[in-house]
Amino acid sequence: MSLIPARIGKIETSSLLLILTNCIPLAGVLFFGWSVFETLFLYWVESGIIALATIALLALMPISAADRAGVPVNQKLIAIPFFMLHFGGFMAAHLFLIIFFLGDPDQGNILWQALETVRKNHSLGWALLSMLVSHGYSFVVNYIRTNKYLQPLSKENFWPIMVRPYKRIVMMQLTILIGAFGVLILRLPQPMMAAMVVVKTLFDLRAHKKEHEQIGPVI
Question: Which region, left, alpha or beta, applies to residue 33 given φ > 0 means left and ψ of -120 to 50 means alpha?
């Protein structure tokens, strides 16, 4: 019996871990008084974890012989730094928006507020750890174990891999708007935040299954 089971019964283990991982912020909102800022900051860090998985995919996959022929420099030496700079800019702008609209204006420094958020909320740290485990497990089982990392990187599958993390940024921006509206205008912090977590979980599960149906690599 494998130490890394792909399924538990009829449910994919990676999908089950995804659901359980998203139950932690739901419990944090309902029972531990997590703020909108803490919840969205957690999901911001998760976007970074997915970006790291994308970088790992690009680094591991060999470039197809047809695309490599006649090119003096390995294309990944350009593509990976470009992705890191471009997506890093999106991440920085996203964090600024979260702190600007939902953080404490008296704290000032954006990085300081981010670090203090994790330090003060130990349950948030456990949630971050669970996300690392969940995405790491999915990466190993659905990519390494299936030998998909041997699939050549080509013009056809390069951009689909690159744009996956950006979809999460768009989802998170919508979540910020909905959360801010519910908390600041409707004065319904817990119901709106719980709804945000549920919607985000359903979105993640749908995206996860859709990627499984594709021929290309799965994160």
Answer: left
